[in-house]
Design goal:
Length: 357
Amino acid sequence: MRILIFAALLASTTLQAKVLATVDGTPVTSEQLEQTLRSSPFATQYPSLDADEQTVLRRDLLQRLVQAEVLYQEARRLGLEEDETVRRDVAEFETGLLAQKYLQYLHDRIEIPAPKQADWRRRLGTDLDALAAVRSVYIADRYRQAKAAALARLRRKYGDLPETGLLARGAREAEIDVSAQVAGFRRERLIQRLLERKEKEWMPDETTLRDYYQRHPEIGRVPERRHIGQIVVADRDTAQALRRRILQGESLFRLAKQYSIDPYGRQHAGDMGWLPEGSAMPAIEKALTTLKDGEISEVIETPRGFHLVTIIERKPGEQKPFAAIGDRVRRALLLERMPAWLREVTARHRIAWSGAP
């Protein structure tokens, strides 16, 4: 499993960027923080947060940027820039990116002659969809021709290389610069390679994972799931009265739709859906542990009101074997080992905080 680390591709700093922290003298700037925020899953929610929530989010993202820089510096300290896997992956990334950029370069150079455009307008008039269609067909046809001609020329010059390699040569001839993207990928791959090696050290084989599972069988436990019905009212007397009516044959669900003060329960006529064992409030959970299917509980008091609950049906819990949850065991072991290792790595590097995020 790849360990997911929040690491942005760091943009070049400008003179206006404020240094927020340094790691071994390498700055982490406000510009990098803004770029990370814009590309994060929280970007669309950020404007709706209050000032304190925005500060907390920015502080968390800055911590993650600093942690990524620490890991990058650690990878360099260990000489992973010379790691054969890293070098191969970076080379493949650069070749693929150059090929992609060269194809875009060929596409962008296609021009539609003015007489041809005038002829289309004369024949098609104001039909914009038809005009767009003929332009698209023309460009696609010229692009195929341009690509075939470029490959033929490059093959004559460089020999029988794979197509991607030939296109990459064409990009270099055209002086297409992908150095910033390659540097970003190299940085990200170095961090990833560092984590891969640490994972291999912690989990050299499946036996390690099986032993860990034996020591932590709770990882494989699937709790019982219960389909719950519920009424919540504001006072005990009302709850007792409703319980008597249910015991006399009235439907808990019809009564919940009429009387429940819980908005969700009222909307869904008391059907609370499937809930895993242990997810209810303590008082309700205690009642559910001894309640039989279809039985109505005694009145249960919680801070939200006075409850009557029933179990409509249940799915028994089970203990999953290691073979079914190997990835889950791996994640659990990583989560256990990772914090201490990160503290150890961080202690090896000089971190200085320069300003608020």
